[in-house]
Amino acid sequence: MNAALQSPLPVTLEWNGVRLEPLAPHHADGLRAAAADGELWQLRITSVPTPEQTDAYIDKAIAMRPSRLAFAVIDAASGAVMGTTSFHDIVPELDRTEIGYTWYGRSRQRSHVNTTCKLLMLGHAFDTLGCAVVGLRTDNFNHTSQRAIERLGAKRDGVLRHHALRRDGTVRDTVMYSIVRGEWPEIKAHLHYKLQQGGGR
């Protein structure tokens, strides 16, 4: 069991024009604006909060510590909130965490932002916290998210049938992926290459 995962502390990570700050109440207006960029709460396969739910969304994320560490994704140049992402399902006994609860305003999608966030978070998980494995999961109908996870180099572990409620009351299957520690150096090099080629998405 890795001592660093016993109670991982909130941390700020920054690189390539993106800053990950521990999600806090003062991010509420920025998060509302990010969600309004595309009215993302209307997508049935995500958990993006409506404008009136944003404060409760942040409060819940903070209350889930230490099993979840949520971040506001910030444009380092302008200070604008672009979205949010989290470490979650942190299991010290297994040296395992997952990355999820991730969404960005529509204008930030298909840009360098997601690849940069994943490099920051995977690097922190493997190189600082000493994780043995990092998991990712998504809705079975969220094919865009599945393709994005697969572009990272994560391996598809399988599907959990009838696993979680969607916002509309239907029950989703959950597609599970993972990256193990030995795969991280190659994935890290590949993601840096993608960014250098202007293809980080």
TrEMBL record:
Gene3D superfamilies, alphabetized: 3.40.630.30
Molecular function, one GO term: acyltransferase activity, transferring groups other than amino-acyl groups
Coiled-coil region list: none
Domain N-acetyltransferase stretches: 19-155
UniProt-listed Pfam families: Acetyltransf_3
Assigned keywords, A-Z: Transferase
Superkingdom classification of source: Bacteria
Protein name according to UniProt: GNAT family N-acetyltransferase
Native source species: Rugamonas apoptosis
